[in-house]
Specification:
By secondary structure, the protein is α+β, with helices and mostly antiparallel strands. It is built from 6 helices and 8 strands, in the order H-H-E-E-H-E-E-E-E-H-H-H-E-E. A 6-stranded antiparallel barrel has the order 1-2-5-4-3-6. A two-stranded antiparallel ribbon has the order 7-8. 36% of the residues are buried.
Length: 212
């Protein structure tokens, strides 16, 4: 995928506070942070839970970025900063609640739509020699598009089932409009011949966003 949960939180810092209940919960535990190293208390197991780089871990209610999972009970974390910036070491905490939830299913849905919009079959069912996801040489160029589309469907789905979902519907409309604007700017630079060089530039066609 071109984006992850951290990308979503960079755009919408309060995402898990607002609609975290609609995410997929991976891990609930307790732990301690020292110099950016999160040590999980038993029975917390980050590997078994499927925690990965780019996930968002809430430690004591504060959203942080998962940099990597070193061992089942050791996770390297950082405060969420700008994309591509140096990791920001969080404040040490001797004991705190730990929760990891994800919107990967929604990101995956939008990822498939974005691939189709640039002529790539996400299931790899095109004829031999046709481009696939590895043909996209600038995946970061589609990161924002995928993130905005994901936020749209996350807020749309939440607004549909939450009592008094008006504010959530407003967020959904905001991200729908931003997605449409970004679709007009984004360009997929592609290698369609397999020589490792850009030989095509494709702009996403109209993508019919649907609710998750």
């Amino acid at each position: 995928m071109f984006s992850n949960d951290v990308d979503l939180v960079r755009l919408e810092p309060g995402l898990f506070d607002m609609v975290g209940w609609s995410s997929q919960r991976l891990l609930v535990a307790t732990g301690a942070i020292t110099s950016g190293v999160l040590m999980l208390n038993a029975p917390g197991d980050a590997i078994a839970a499927g925690v990965a780089s780019g996930d968002v871990v809430r430690i004591g209610g504060v959203a942080m970025e998962v940099l990597s999972v070193a061992f089942s009970d050791v996770v390297l974390v950082a405060r969420i900063g700008e994309q591509g910036g140096a990791p920001i070491v969080p404040i040490d905490q001797p004991s705190a609640s730990v929760e990891v939830s994800t919107f990967r299913p929604q990101i995956s849905l939008v990822h498939r739509q974005v691939l189709r919009s640039i002529g790539i079959d996400p299931d790899g069912a095109l004829a031999e020699g046709e481009p696939d996801v590895s043909s996209v040489l600038n995946p970061d160029g589609l990161r924002l598009l995928e993130s905005l589309g994901t936020l749209h469907i996350v807020f749309s789905a939440a607004a549909a089932i939450a009592p008094g979902g008006g504010p959530l519907a407003d967020r959904a409309a905001y991200y729908r409009d931003r997605f449409a604007d970004e679709r007009g700017r984004a360009v997929a630079r592609m290698d369609t011949t397999g020589d490792g060089r850009v030989d095509a530039a494709r702009r996403p066609s109209v993508v019919p966003l649907i609710r998750a």
